[in-house]
Design brief:
Elements (H helix, E strand, L loop, with lengths): L1 H9 L14 H16 L6 E6 L5 H15 L11 E5 L5 E2 L2 E2 L4 E8 L4 H19 L6 E8 L1 E4 L2 E4 L5
Parallel strand pairs: 1-2, 5-6
Antiparallel strand pairs: 1-5, 3-4, 7-8
Length: about 160
């Protein structure tokens, strides 16, 4: 029972299938192992699109990406090794109808679901990166987080709830 609770908490891949049939233990464990293997490799789709009003030199771009890689490690199973960053610098951004200066918006997407506290710690870490690297204050930085149950990469598809 303890193993099941651990797997359910760490790898939420237990689901009723259509018709209300519960997975067999074998299918459940196979799916959990597949997800766990991807998580151990640190490649479970952390993606961050960062839109910045500043035009950044290559050194600043690299520093920002490195800082985001460190920040994503707050989320269990995520790290900079698998982080995809789409950096859009020199953007024109309006907020409330007013053209912004030194403004940042980040759209974060990743595989799986995490606790409120983990997401809050991650958000705070990202805002610190924006302030330290870009000099952007907290009132000029915004972030959204989208969590996904399924993901495709490396020529494969995985889903937290279903398996082949």
């Amino acid at each position: 029972m303890g193993c099941f609770l651990f797997l359910q908490a760490e790898l939420p891949c237990f689901q009723l299938e259509p018709g209300g049939i519960i997975w067999s233990e074998r299918k459940f464990l196979q799916t959990c192992r597949k997800v766990h293997q991807y998580r151990k490799r640190g490649v479970l789709m952390p993606f961050i699109r960062v839109s910045v009003t500043q035009k950044l030199a290559e050194e600043k771009q690299a520093e920002l990406v490195e800082g985001l890689g460190e920040a994503i490690s707050v989320i269990p199973g995520k790290d900079g090794r698998g982080l995809i960053v789409d950096l859009e610098d020199g953007k024109t951004i309006f907020c409330g109808g007013v053209k912004q200066e030194n403004f940042v918006f980040a759209d974060v997407r990743y595989y799986s679901n995490f606790t409120y506290q983990q997401k809050k710690e991650f958000t705070i870490a990202v805002f610190k990166v924006f302030e330290n690297v870009l000099g952007t204050t907290k009132d000029k930085a915004f972030l959204t987080i989208t969590e996904y149950n399924n993901w495709g990469g490396f020529g494969n598809f995985i889903d937290e709830y279903y398996s082949d």
